[in-house]
Amino acid sequence: MHRRGFLAASLATVLASPRALAQMKMDDMSNMPGMDHAGHDMGAMGQGPVALPQNQPLRELPLLANEAAGPGLFKARLTAESATARFAADRDTPILAYNGISPGPLIETQEGDRVEITFSNRIEGEPSTIHWHGMPVPADQDGNPMDPVAAGADRVYAFELPEGSAGSYWYHPHPHGRTAEQVYRGLAGAFLVKAKADPIPAAYGDTTLFLTDLRLAADGSMPENTMTDMMNGRVGDQVLVNGQKNPRLAVAMGTKRRLRLYNATNARFLRLAFVNAAMTVIGSDGGLLEAPVATDEILLSPAERVELVVAFDKPGTAILTTLDYDRGWMGPGRPEDKGLALLTADVSDTQAEPMPPLPERLRPIARFGQPTVSRRLVFTETMAMKPTGMEMGFLINGMAFDMGRVDIVARAGDTELWEIVNQADMDHPFHLHGTQFQLIERERDGKVSKPPYLAWKDTVNVARGETVRLVTRQERPGTRMYHCHILEHEQLGMMGVVDVQA
Ligand code: C2O
Ligand code: CU
Ligand code: CU
Known about the structure:
The chain is mainly β. It has helices spanning 3-16, 18-23, 179-184, 227-232, 487-491, and strands at 73-85, 93-98, 107-110, 114-122, 131-133, 154-160, 167-172, 189-194, 207-214, 238-241, 248-253, 255-263, 270-275, 278-284, 287-295, 297-300, 305-312, 316-323, 341-351, 373-386, 389-396, 408-411, 416-422, 428-432, 437-444, 447-449, 459-462, 466-472, 478-484, 495-501. It has three domains: 73-194, Cupredoxins -  blue copper proteins (Immunoglobulin-like), CATH 2.60.40; 202-351, Sandwich (Immunoglobulin-like); 373-501, Cupredoxins -  blue copper proteins (Immunoglobulin-like), CATH 2.60.40.420. The protein contains five helices and 30 strands. A six-stranded mixed beta sheet has the order 10-9-12-17-14-15, with no helix packed on it. A hairpin with a 2-residue loop joins strand 25 (437-444) and strand 26 (447-449). The structure holds CU-O-CU linkage (C2O) and copper (II) ion (2 copies). CU-O-CU linkage binds next to strand 5 and strand 29.
């Protein structure tokens, strides 16, 4: 039987039979609930998702205060703890928060800074870590699952931000077996490294839009992951921007704004368009492109970021919205992808002060030379009926993650070609820790295509049936992770370890 058919049939069996479900055997699924939320599409059950207030003025993310006295040092504290949020007007939602808020405070630093952040894990009964997603930090400061911070404990993360590292990074927990849950409960924030000489006109501002998604039960609580969530990754009922549903932004006609968009959802693919405004891509995960590129739409898979300049040249309403995207959904309950209004701009008909133009060149990006090593990672999904029950796996080269196993031994400074082969039925966004890479090409059904522009990336979507080739180099020795950034897939095994030797 065709693999997809087999998976669909197996899944149908699972979903139809509470008995099979009860027998289902999966690692790290200690809290699997019954079938009551199976298709989290509450609409199908007669009650829509809990209504959230909309159209409030967009709030900027609060900054993490720098406690250092002089320049060149960023010193602060991040405490992870239980907190309460008010998403819906009349009910409380228990969440996990950094310094009491979700998304966590915005960290703003400059290239060349030294960073010292004291992390206090006050999550009851759970280890955690802080991982600095995309950043060139030493391996022992990168919040690997092998370096947990126990509940009640503190640790200092310290690193230097090299020259040239300006970019839109983020931070989130990475404890073994608990990353997906700690993130969807609220632990994630943006980490900006600003350039000393930034070519983007200051008049455009610099606004971070941190996209998360949310599912609330009728009582305001966040339901636990269901079977469908474990399979596809958790997709909520609402997409929020800086914690708000469809907030509003007032701009004068002719305004240009610099916007940094983060896909900080566990598993939602965001194909974005800006109705009535013009988008120009100026940067990616690891900072600015060489030159601006005008675009009509952007696919932002989980964990990816994009930096845009948006020109509001038409009076009226401009809406950041989603388009349809088929990422290979398994089973029932496929969420609606298109037509979500994420942010609404009210463009006045009085003309803004004339804005300086965007420069034609942003910065040089040196292309990697010829790789001296090549690697091949094959992503598969398996689902098999075993005498003990149904077993589902998300595998790389046929293996599920094992913290005690080294999958790849590499040498610091070597230029490597990584070929990521997706033989599965779902898209999987591939992420590598500790460095940035350059996408070389994509291949699907024998057709090879080159990326439209050169960019520094740490996460790239590998569509089902697709092969992605990228070139990368680890500059520092130590243990690094690579994984699918659908966090439920990472948790179910789609992760590996690279040991970078000096
Ligand atoms: Cu956002 Cu292992 O990473
Ligand atoms: Cu990462
Ligand atoms: Cu995946």
